[in-house]
Every structure is written in C-alpha cells, then in structure tokens.
Amino acid sequence: MKIIKEYITGGLKPKSINLYLFAAFITILSLIPVWTSDPTILNVFIYTFLFAFYAASWSILGKYAGQISIGHSVYFGLGAYTTVLLYVHYNVSPWLGMFVGGLLAAMVAMLLGLPCFRLRGLFYIFATLAFAEVVRIIFLHPLRDLSGGAEGIPFTIGYTSPYYFQFVEKWPYYYIALTMMILLIAGLQKMEKSRLGYYLKAICEDEDAAEAIGINVLKYKLIAAGISGFLTAIAGTFYVQFLCYIGVNDVFGIMRSIEPVIISWVGGSGVFGPILGSFIITPITEFLVLTLGMTTAYGLHMILYGAILIIIVLFMPEGVIKPLSQKFYIPLLKKLSEEYRRV
Amino acid sequence: MVVISLELLTKAVISGMVLGGVYSLLAIGLTLITGVMRVMNFAHGDLMMIAMYVTFWLFALFNINPFFSMTLVIPFLFLIGMFIQKFLISPVRTPENQVLITFGLAILLENLALFLWSPDYRSIITPYTTITIHFSHLDVGLIRFLTLIVALVTSFSLHVFVTRTEMGKCIWALAQDPEAAMLVGIDIHKLRLITFGLANALVALAGIFLAQIYYIFPSLGLRFTIIAFIVVILGGFGSVGGALLGSFIIGLTEALGGVFVGIGYKDVMVFIIFILILLFKPSGLFGKIRV
Prior knowledge:
Chain A is an all-alpha fold. Chain A is 79% helix and 1% strand. Chain B is mainly α. Chain B has a single domain, classed as ABC transporter involved in vitamin B12 uptake, BtuC. Chain B is 74% helix and 3% strand.
C-alpha cells in the first residue's frame, strides 16, 4: 500500500513499481528449483530463460535498430561450434570458448553488415536469410569432417564439472540461464537510456533523418550487429552445453533463425517484449514436444509458429505487451489508486 | 581431380539451361510481385511445392497426367495468390510486417506438407519420363527439353503482355509509381490481386514441370525461394528480361559449379555471385525500379 500511496502522491513513479514487481518475479523464479526438482518443469524454465535471452539479443538488432535479421542462426551456431570444437580438440573450457565464439560471431556479424547494411528493409531481410542458409550448407557438406554433419557431435563427459560447463543435475543450468537473462535485462535497460540506445531508436524510426542530424548510421548499425551477434553466440553455447550435443541442422537450421523473430514479435518491443514472448511461446513449444513426441511435434509446432506469426502480424503488429499493459496493467494501477483514495 | 570431358561439359550446360528455365518461371513471378507490390514473398518456393504436391496427388490418386492437371493446378494457384494478397498482404501496413507474414506462411506451408505427407521424396513417373531426344550425339530428356521451351515461350509472352497490352501497361505503371498510377485512374487493388494471381500461376507452371524432372519433398521450397530472390536481385526488380537472363546465369553457375568445383559447393558459388551483386551493383543488371 505504501508503494501505491507514493505513486499517487507522485513520490514513486510507475517505474519503481515495475522494479518492485520485477524483483518479486525474479525472487519467485529463483525459488522454483528449491520447490521442485522435477526435470521436466526445470527444462521448460531453462528453455524459456534461454530463448528469452536469445530473443532479447536478437532484438538489439531486430527491434532497437530495426534491422530484421532472419539469419541469427549463423551467430548461434558459430558460438556453439567454436566452443565445442575448442573443447573437443584442445580441451579449452567452454567458459573461455564462449567468449572466443562470441567475438568470432560479432566479427562475422559486422563483416556481413558491411555489405548488407547498405540495403534497406526487404533486401536486408533476404540477405540475412540467404547467408544463414549458405553457412548451414557449408557446415553440412564441405566442413563435414569438422562439424560432424547432420549427425553432429555428442560430447557429454558424464559428471558434474563446473570448469567444463557440464552438470548432471538441472539446477545449475537453471540458475546460469536465469542469471544470463537478468543480466541481459539489466544491460538492455541501461542501453535504452544510453547514447547508443537513443541513436538506434532514431535509426529505427527514420534512417534518413538520423543520418541528417549527424548520426553515423552504418557505424551504429554495425555496433548493434556486433553486440547482438556476441550475445547470440553465448546463447548458442549455453544451448549446446545444456544438450551435450551439437548438430549442424540443430544450431544452423532455419528454425533457430525464426525463433527469436517470432518470440520478439509476439512479445512486442522494449526490454520486456522478448522476455514476455518467450514466457508465452517456449512453454507452448515444450508442451507440444512433451505430449506429441519429438518427431510429430516438430512439424506441428512449426505449423503453430507459422500460424502464430501470421496472426500476430495481422491482428497485433505491436506484440502482446502493448495491449496487455494498456488493457490490464495501467487500469490495474488506476484501480488500485482509486481504491486507496476511497479508504 | 575429375577429368572433364566435352560430353560432361555439354551435359552440365544443358542441365544448367533446364534449371535456368525453371528458375525463370519462378523469378518472373517474383519480379512481378516485388515490382508491383514492393513485397518479398517468402512463400514463393513453398507455393511451388504445394503446386508440385497437387500435381503429384492428382497423378497418383486419379491418374491425371500432369499436362492435363495443369488446367486445374494453375487456376488453383491463381486463386490462392489472390487470396494471399487480399487477406494476408493488403491488410498489413509496413513492408517489414508484410515480409514477416509471407515468412509465416512459408513456415506454415512447409510444415503442413511435412505433417500431412511425411518427408519422403516422391516423384512422378509417366510413360514419357524416359523418352529422350537426340541432337547429333547428345541425349536430352523430352520433359527437360519441353521445360526449357515452355519457360522461354512463357517469358516472351509475359514480356509482350507487360509491354504491349493495356493491362500489362497498367501493371508496369503501378510498378513504376503506385501513386501516379492511382491518380490516372488505375484500380490498383484489383491489379495487385491479378498480379499476385498471375505470379502464382507462373509458380504453378514451374511446379508442374519441376515435379516431373525433380523430386517432390516438403522442404524444397526455401531453396527455390532463395534462388528466385537472387535471380530477381541479379536481374533487377520488375525486369522480365533481367529475370530471364539472371535465371540462366544462376542455373549455369549451379550446374557448372557442381561439375568443376563439387556438388557441395554449388550453392556457395551462387551465393558468392549474390554477394558480388550486392557489393557492386545492388540495383541489378537491368534494374529500373527503386524499391
């Protein structure tokens, strides 16, 4: 009640209420492994955090800078493969390999950006898709000996080893994924209020106008691509470390590129858009996989993905977060304040 | 090292030409859509996949020859095209969202096919599948030869349609400047419907021929979409001639690359061409329209 009182008297901004709610949300999430050790439930949460992280990293380029990329599987896969290959061949700890992969992915993202960022909208979307497809094909056939081809490389060591990023139980993965997500949320909050954030927003709104007021559009797009690629590679590393298996079609497949787009689009813009999106989409996917089995579910949940994308774009192009906050969250605050006045 | 004989080379050239023919039908449809609607249809290849499956099932279940089922498949895809334009593309405002919606459609179609018809490879075998035509010492499959001829004839008649007939000129005007076209009294909504339908009819034609010389499987769409895009960008948006020339360049690159460099690298070579175009001539060879 104190919070609401402060809110009405103007002492506490809605932003602070958001912060309290966020803290409560995180506390509840961090208590879940204490409450249950059911691997199925933990699995769903781990994937939800991971894909929230992935979608949020995608949104730096796709939502903030407005450069919709349908080729983020390249960075996802590069990060994953760098880590795994360094570990398998040179016994390098994945914690280190993660950053090597991240830097590699950031470099590739920026190099690809050089020709592609001169293209507008449609061309850019297509160029990223084509690039991702070709990288997949290169890893599938010419680099078959290195990548293990479609069969992939299983690399489990079978015991818990924090140094090698492998755990027998689920809960370490749970907390790592949760921490990754929270850190990224905090980082994005900071970025939104920074010079980079404002520049990206300007570029997203109107590129020509941004250029006209003296923003180096190409430079900031490249920075966004680099950050996005780096973070995506880290998501890729976590994904394969969690599965203890890496396969070309799994990490480089078109599915991996679509996931962040759908999650971000369903969720909406802002820091919490992709997070919300993942909390909606990922449990549905996992539920389908659990109930229908992997092979049937694969086709079916992709059908669902396609249908969701079409419906969201047609009826809710701003994502779920905007109508949700306008219809429920803000009225809730108002109602609470009115009730307080009556008391 | 593979010893490359003259025979192998001519065979590669011929298969490149046939591939180019199929690509040209796809790419001309896409160039019309992109030119007129300013939309990239990511479901282009998947619509062809659907056309191939319809052809296949008509043949497998009712024993209808692909050359007869053409009269069903082409109008069917024409209607689907109009449907997509009316209910999916035109209600959506921004181009990014329009692209995403076609992308959603592509995922939907591919996995629907996967779900309904399994990932098995299928093919249509007719009595004339094995017939070949002899050109001095060369053997060319009859259907492959027909594919090439049909592609060339269709592109030529489409070129005539766009440049000579009234409706074609209206489409061309719409492609050049939608607002000006509206001002001189062209019904742009109707024309967009027809253009999308027409593009899909071309897709159906490509599918009918490809179904007889290639395998039919659910995931083939994406690759053809990508190739068709590369061709369209290579040829320049809205240019029928450019799309035709681009198709043969890409088809020959693929076939010759497969022989000289290795099968695994043929898509890589196509992509290198694509990167080169983006770097040095983003408007394409005959680009007239700015998108």
